[in-house]
Write the structure tokens for this entry.
Amino acid sequence: MLRRPLQVITLSLLLWVPCFVAISPQPASAVNVFQACDVNGAQKTDVCQERSKHGNPVVRAIHVAINILSVIIGAAATIVIILSAFKMVRSQGNPQEVSTARTGIIYAAIGLVIAVMAPIIVGYVLKGI
């Protein structure tokens, strides 16, 4: 009885694994090497050119963190939608179970919308920084 839902969950998780593999970790630094970029003539160094090409490393780290969280929330919401749909199908017309499944689908859909909108909102806010 539980074998089929476990297969569905396993398959859906396996489909999300490439998303996690594609996200590479960002390097961290404890020293602010970009402070010297404000000195005359320092803009031509490799470090300063890298900064101007890719932007602030803190902003990039925030973008990466939001993207990772969005993928996790999106995967969880998708799994909840699938499980709630199975629950609705198996409810056999029981109004209480149908209501519980519908509520789960609605909450998961809201989570999915938040997961899609979060990177857009954070990107808009961080453009001003």
